[in-house]
Amino acid sequence: MHRALVARAPSFLASCGATSRENAMITCRSFAALLLLILWYCTRAIDAIAANQCVAKDLTGTPLNVRTTPNGHIVGTLNNGDQVTVLDGTSDRKGKSWVYVGDYKDNKPIGWVFREFIACYIRADRPSSPRDPPMENVAGTTNTPPLAGCYERIYDSAHLAAHKGQLVTRATLSISAASPEWQRIAPEWHFIAEADLKIWVRGRNQSFDSLGTCRAEGDGLLCNGSSSAAEADECKSKRDGIRQCRIMSAGSVFEVVGKPEGVLVTVREQLELVPYPGDSGPFLYFSPTNTENHAFLLKRAFGVCNVRMR
Question: Which domain CATH number covers 111?
Fold first, then answer.
């Protein structure tokens, strides 16, 4: 491509009407600037592809569906650990993020998958470049987002007895810096943090989870929670609680605001949470109007966010 551009320089000058030495010099300078810009863009693109070593992750028991379009027809699956390259990214009408992935070896397109199930790294076999954004690990960048840390709340029997309608018995929230890959595939969203929200409810041992990608809002965070990738029947009503069907209109948005005791997590749009492990249901839903299950005050905790209750 670079040689072709250089080879076409004489015809390019002639087509621009460079009939005099002065005009030719001006046109040459313009063409040189354009050529340098194209070369810089190509180098950036090559660097981004070379740095983009990604793998399928967090597939708890079921393969990751590959689709023709975001929320489109399933055309295949990825297994946990499969290497891919991110070729493009977008968000659907609910604000959920998707990436278009290709084969890691030759970039041959594979299809669209949920962004939250793809982790990306700087390639170990490639020297770092001044153009590379700083990366510490797949969890985030060198910048610490607001409210970063681990939070927890366990509701005692007295509280639950006084709040008969409250389903939630325990909640944890882990906030960390967003992966630098977000800056490559969705810079317009300004995501700065990831918020892993886990909720336990009465009569269930496993947690229901939502992994949110968050942008700053005031001194807090506004997070787009994750949605299930499972194929399930659509619910006929939008009733909250544990459902065997899916509420497709659930926006899955929650807010995190700092408080003296820790953080206040508030449901802003009906939240869909999926069980751990697995992604095939049942599904848990909470709405902003659910008086007993829409806001949770969590206290800062240590060593609990990665511990699972069985």
Answer: 2.30.30.40
Write down the H helix ranges in the chain: 2-7, 9-15, 21-51, 157-162, 181-185
CA nearest neighbour of 221 among 196, 188, 200, 251: 196
Calculate the average pLDDT of the chain.
Answer: 75
Asked, for residue 128, whether it belongs to a domain, the answer is no
Other Cβ atoms less than 10 A from the Cβ of 206: the count is 15
Tell me whether strands 271-275 and 149-154 are parallel, antiparallel or unpaired.
unpaired
Write the pLDDT tens digit of every residue in 233-278. Answer: 899 999 999 999 999 888 889 999 999 989 999 999 999 998 876 6
Length of the chain, in residues = 310
The whole-model pTM stands at 0.58
Same domain, yes or no, for 12 and 66?
A: no
Confidence band, pLDDT 50/70/90 cuts, at residue 161:
very high
Mapped onto helix, strand or coil, the DSSP state of residue 305 is coil
Please tell me the distance from the alpha carbon of residue 5 to that of residue 2, in angstroms, as a whole number: 5
Whose tokens are 């700053």? That residue is 216
**Beta carbons of 88 and 99 less than 8 angstroms apart:** yes
State phi, psi for 8 to the nearest 5 degrees.
-90, 0
pLDDT, tens digit, for every residue of 207-218? 999 988 899 998
Q: b/e for 90-124, b at 16 or more Cβ within 10 A?
A: ebeebebbbbbbbebeeeeebbbbbbbbbbbebee
Q: Are residues 40 and 61 in the same domain?
A: no
For residues 17 and 36, what is the distance between their CA atoms, to the nearest angstrom?
21
Neighbours of 45 (CB within 10 A): 10
**Residue (of 248, 249, 267, 247) closest to 257 by Cα position:** 267
